[in-house]
Write a structure and sequence with these properties.
The chain has 320 residues and is of the alpha+beta class. It has six helices and 16 strands. The structure holds P-hydroxybenzoic acid and fe (iii) ion (FE).
Length: 320
Amino acid sequence: MAPASANQFGYHDFTLGDFSFRRDEYFAHLKWPGGSHIAPVDKFLKALMRDVAWNFFYGIVNFDEVFGTLNHYGNVDVFAGLYNAGYRAQKKEFLQNFPSDEVRELFSAMLDDWTNEGFDPFAAPTETGSAFGPKRGNNTVAVTRARVTAKRMAGLKDDTPLRSDADGHLVNRHFADVDQTEPKVHAEPGFEGEVHAFNFFAYLSRSDVTWNPSITSVVKDSLACPTTEEFILPIIHGNDRVEWFVQLSDEITWDVSDRDTGAPRARITMKAGDVAAMPADIRHQGFSPKRSMLLVWENADEKLPELYASGKLKPNPVDF
Ligand code: PHB
Ligand code: FE
């Protein structure tokens, strides 16, 4: 837990089991029995933000090549060097398991304490202030932002709302050319409450965050998770299931590596209209030179990690 007093830069130290975390003006310093790590604090906070907001996401969230979390959906492994071939070769990996709530509470407190006024870990680099320097105010509003999660579909009655100028969701500078016209729905009498449509591109053009998939429609385990991307995905995601990507606009380059060792497997440049199935045994990180729109299609079936881990399902859904 955080001690009462702050360090000379105004930040608190945190501990989680045998891990300890300290920040100074530029870096996050991590320690565990037998090892330590240092990460630029802007990069660390961007990864921390996502791990908290996504409740540890699917599978592995690598903050970088050393530190991260593995989600067991209820409890979580916090690790150092576990998915790093060099650490593994020297038997230097370290992990501890915790109830998810305990890690989330600690990570949320650290995120809030270490984030300065004007720095938004979800924003594109040119749309936020600096993370660096001594402690300067806070940005609690930004770091406690809830992820959009539709119950059925964005814009339906009693569901997550569509976005507009009026609620502060302005069209992003890179999407000024996106048509904002909403479709007209002509439902048969008696079906007025059951037929729904909205302008998906207009909705995404008004996203104020990057690399943060929203759940905009849900059909059983099928989740449509679109997101707007700019600069670099702040985590390296290790899949525990297949993920489908549909590039809706512009272009993203993906580095794809072996999930467990990090050995490079592919570099893929996806242009508008391209579709990819990211296998269940990879890690990936995306690079988006300008803001772009990506649809991530997730399968939330909780049986999937075990089906892939046991080899009952093969890691790639398509053979060419
Ligand atoms: C992913 O790891 O699949 C992922 C995460 C965040 C995004 C896009 C893709 O914004
Ligand atoms: Fe992924």
